[in-house]
Design a protein that fits this description.
The complex is a heterodimer of chains A (487) and B (254). By secondary structure, chain A is α/β, with parallel strands linked by helices. Chain A has one domain (12-482). Helix content of chain A is 23%, strand content 32%. Chain A contains 12 helices and 24 strands. In chain A, strands 4-3-7-9-12-14-17-20-22-24 form a 10-stranded mixed beta sheet. A 6-stranded parallel barrel of chain A has the order 13-15-18-21-19-16. In chain A, helix 2 runs antiparallel to helix 8 and helix 9 crosses helix 10 (447-458). Chain B has one domain: Rossmann fold. In chain B, 35% of the residues lie in helices and 27% in strands. Chain B is built from 9 helices and 12 strands. In chain B, a hairpin with a 2-residue loop joins strand 1 and strand 2 (14-24). Chain B is globular, with a radius of gyration of 18 Å. The two termini of chain B are 28 Å apart. The chains are: A alpha/beta (487), B alpha/beta (254). Chain A binds chain B through residues 11, 433-436, 438-447, 449, 453-454, 456-461, and chain B through 48-51, 70-72, 74-76, 80-81, 83, 86-87, 89-92, 97-98, 100-102, 104-105, 108, 140, 157, 161.
């Protein structure tokens, strides 16, 4: 099933790819309140107390922690990295000044400058794009905008901590309903120590009037990031959620183990888009983010639909399989992905589609680009249960190789227990041919621009699933990530 | 315009061009004929800067050393190749590709870039030359194009990019008679005083439509005979048999 592939070199310059400097490698000095290193029940109690959480949530965390201590980190994924010392991680860091922020003007100027540097001016976003931004720096939300406008239609969009205080019943009802506290090693760790994240609730029949957006940023040194995101779309509602990430350069690897849970009830639709640009490590593979994330949607209602679209160019190691449990009859799950690995980046990513309801359909389109010494593995599961009469899946995995040291692998798992199920799987591996490059250059297009053009063309099917502004950003990001790949 | 002297080219220690000499003046149309494997396409590849060849000798283009330039610099200097096998670029729109190409050339020449509207106007006008309609422009570059469509697309690019030196590599191969007529009409419309063309072909047929000023015969990596358009007819009648290069044996393979 596995098809490791490498290509002959295009030209010597191609090796340069991995050496491109990370554009966002800077550190902002914020007043940070940190917990001591290490993990034990006291740390969890500290986090819970800091956040003034109800007793049931502390118990849930402790239950997750106790289960986690019985687990060992998974080793089946096609990536390699040194052991992570979980006792050497700081599990809580609060960058927020003592004073509570109530408006944008009060946000730390240094923090705002940092967002400006990333090209994400909150003020500008607020004014021009109509996007509500819940900015997360380290583990605490520092600014939430447009909350009032959303409140008019009954949409709740706030930090997870705030939701715990204001909407404990909703949180209690849905937390862990898609990714249980004992789901897997990293999800379990997240359940024990998560510090913040986003919460989103779309009431019955409401079409969310704007794209909801969260920009994540890992800031304090050696701080593990354990966000928890929960999105609930009630009957007949619709929401489009954007998640974008960048992180400053670090020498030491940083662990990021987030959990995202989506719940779509009858006729509801959730569109979740991610652009991920975390520090990938240097040319020799030092530093960079470990991105071990559990993302799952529950299409629990009839005719419900959940779409994941992701463009991933960052992280030293990526390990994630955004999936959908298609429980409701006629429910739809989609996964559109572009994953770029350059330098010594490794990605083991794909999707899991579990068909339970009748006439459920799923689509997986995966575009993997490997350059430098990058390794890209597609791993996907299509699981059709007995009950899933008339279920259908279409999977397409395309890999593009740049240079001779990169690799692409495809590992599809298909499990069909219903005779009426239909599964289609297409896979292709190609390399940016000398022929394509020469063709572009003969027409006068410089080599670097040609590579970017060819790669963007390769990813077009996925880019067109992204909201407009995000698609532009994603294309730029891909171009930046490929800079130095040639000439 | 272009003077080629004692041009040698080898790939993997195999010598394919063995001392080519050619002198192309502005506004002339030269045809190069010859059997398969005689080095015709290699000559085109070397002139546009394809990597991987060991090269000696010289190619002087408008007074500068053509061989020292990168492929994109040669393009900016006005060198164009209509490829024998135009490659597909999935997901990249034909219109977008051509506009990027034209603007890259203009940028390298220090000229102002064309915006989308101006480009569209230009493209629509040039599309008439090769009887192409708008639907071609919205498709991905060469993707799913028939053989004839690919060749017409090459000539369209030539019409838009307006090169000074156009090399047509086996532009007639795989074309039926109607497609051949369309392509040849396009090429003829682009003949001008300032534009030199080098037409590489295996068959005399194309030269009935694109009538050359000079015909050269290539064999085993050398130009073994040169003449006017009648030479093409002579070859049609007698074949390539008996044409021997100055040195080495006949029948080099590529």
């Amino acid at each position: 099933m596995t098809a490791p592939t490498t290509t002959p070199g295009i030209s010597d310059e191609v090796r340069e790819l991995a050496n491109q400097e990370y554009q966002y490698g800077f550190v902002t000095d914020l007043e940070t309140e940190v917990a001591p290193r290490g993990l034990n029940e006291d740390i969890i109690r500290l986090i819970s107390a800091k956040k003034n959480e109800p007793e049931w949530l502390l118990e849930w965390r402790l239950k997750a922690y106790r289960h986690w201590t019985t687990l060992t980190a998974p080793t089946w994924q096609h990536v390699s990295y040194g052991p992570v010392d979980y006792q050497d991680i700081i599990y809580y860091a609060d960058p927020r000044p003592k004073k509570q922020v109530s408006s944008m003007d009060e946000v730390d100027p240094e923090l705002r400058a940092m967002f400006d540097k990333l090209g994400i001016s909150l003020g500008e976003q607020e004014r021009l794009s109509g996007v509500a931004v819940d900015a997360i720096v380290d583990s605490v939300s520092v600014a939430t905008t447009f909350t009032e406008k959303l409140a008019e239609v009954g949409v709740i969009f706030c930090s997870f901590s705030e939701a715990v205080q204001k909407y404990p019943d909703l949180v209690r009802r849905y937390l862990g309903s898609v990714v249980p506290h004992n789901d897997n090693f990293f999800a379990c760790l997240n359940s024990a120590v998560f510090t913040d994240g986003s919460f989103c609730y779309i009431p019955k029949g409401v079409q969310c009037p704007m794209e909801l957006s969260t920009y994540f940023r890992i800031n304090a040194a050696d701080t593990g990031q354990f966000e928890r995101t929960l999105i609930i779309a009630e009957e007949g509602s619709y929401v489009s959620y954007l998640e974008g990430c960048t992180a400053p350069a670090r020498d030491k690897n940083q662990l990021h183990a987030a959990v995202v849970e989506l719940v779509a009830l009858d006729d509801a639709q959730i569109k979740y888009s991610t652009v991920q640009n975390w520090y990938p490590g240097d040319a020799d593979g030092n530093g960079g983010i470990y991105n071990f994330v559990t993302k799952r949607g529950m299409a629990s209602g009839r005719n419900s639909k959940i779409s994941w679209t992701q463009v991933e160019t960052g992280s030293a190691i990526t390990w994630k399989y955004p999936g959908v449990i298609l429980k409701g009859d006629n429910s739809v799950g989609e996964f559109y992905s572009v994953a770029l690995t350059a330098r010594r980046q490794q990605a083991d990513t794909g999707s899991k589609m579990v068909h339970i309801g009748k006439n459920t359909t799923s689509t997986i389109i995966s575009k993997a680009i490997s350059a430098g010494h990058g390794q890209n593995t597609y791993r996907g599961l299509v699981d059709m249960r007995h009950s899933a009469a008339g279920a259908r899946n279409f999977t397409q995995c395309d890999s593009l190789l740049i240079g001779k040291d990169s690799g692409a692998h495809t590992l599809p798992y298909i499990n069909v227990k219903n005779q009426t199920g239909q599964v289609e799987h297409e896979a292709s591996t190609s390399k940016i041919g000398e022929e394509q490059l020469l063709y572009c250059r003969q027409r006068g297009i410089p080599e670097e621009e040609a590579v970017s053009m060819i790669v963007n063309g390769f990813c077009r099917e996925v880019f067109r699933m992204l909201p407009m502004e995000f698609a532009v950003e994603a294309q730029k990001l891909l171009t930046v990530s490929l800079e130095g790949s040639v000439g | 315009m272009l003077k080629i002297e004692e041009l040698h080219a080898s790939i993997d220690n195999k010598e394919i061009l063995r001392g080519v000499n050619l002198d192309l003046k502005a506004g002339e149309v030269h045809a190069i004929m010859g059997p398969n494997g005689s080095g015709k396409s290699t000559l085109a590849s070397v002139l546009i800067g394809r990597e991987g060849y060991e090269i000696s000798g010289s190619a002087t283009y408008e007074g500068q050393d053509l061989l020292a330039l990168s492929p994109e610099e040669r393009a900016a200097a006005g060198v164009f190749l209509a490829f024998q096998h135009p490659v597909e670029i999935p997901g990249v729109g034909n219109m977008y590709f051509m506009r990027t190409a034209l603007n890259s050339l203009r940028r390298q020449r220090g000229e102002e870039e064309l915006d989308a509207v101006d480009f569209l106007t230009l493209a629509q006008e040039r599309m008439k030359l090769v009887e192409m309609d708008q639907t071609f422009m919205s498709r991905a570059v060469n993707e799913g194009f028939s053989g004839g469509e690919k060749k017409r697309n090459e000539i369209l690019q030539m019409a838009i990019l307006e090169p000074k030196l156009a090399i047509l590599d086996e532009t007639d191969s795989g074309l039926d008679i109607d497609a051949l007529r369309v392509v040849a009409n396009g090429v003829n419309a682009l003949r001008s005083e300032g534009r030199t063309m080098l037409v590489i072909t295996h068959h005399q047929r194309l030269l009935d439509y694109i009538v050359p000023d000079f015909v050269h015969v290539m064999a085993a990596g050398q130009i073994v005979r040169s003449g006017d358009k009648d030479l093409a007819h002579e070859l049609e009648a007698n074949g390539y048999e008996g044409l021997t290069p100055r040195s080495a044996k006949v029948g080099a393979t590529v």
